[in-house]
C-alpha cells in the first residue's frame, strides 16, 4: 500500500496537491501551522492512496514523497 509522506515545514499550504489528488486523500490542515505560519496539507484518507504521485509532482516545494512498499515474492 502506498504511503503519502508530507514534510509539514516545507509545505506552504498552496493546495495544489489537495486539488489534484484524484482520490481526495489530502486536505489543508486548518488546525495546524508550520514554522513559517502556513497550514500544511495532511493525508486524511491515506488508505485511498493509489500511489500515482500526482500530489508530489504538483508540489512546488518538494514537500511530498510517495513511499511504495514492495510486495513479497516479487
TrEMBL record:
It holds the Pfam family Fer4_7. GO terms for molecular function: iron-sulfur cluster binding; metal ion binding. Keywords: Iron, Iron-sulfur, Metal-binding. Transmembrane segments: none annotated. Residues 2-31, 40-69 form the 4Fe-4S ferredoxin-type domain. It comes from the Bacteria. This is 4Fe-4S dicluster domain-containing protein.
Amino acid at each position: 500500500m502506498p504511503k503519502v509522506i508530507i514534510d509539514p515545514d516545507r509545505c506552504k499550504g498552496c493546495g495544489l496537491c489537495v486539488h489534484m489528488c484524484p482520490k481526495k486523500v489530502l486536505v489543508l490542515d486548518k488546525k495546524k501551522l508550520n514554522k513559517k505560519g502556513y497550514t500544511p496539507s495532511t493525508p486524511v484518507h491515506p488508505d485511498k492512496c493509489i500511489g500515482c504521485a500526482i500530489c508530489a509532482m504538483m508540489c512546488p516545494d518538494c514537500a511530498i514523497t510517495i513511499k511504495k512498499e514492495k510486495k513479497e515474492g516479487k
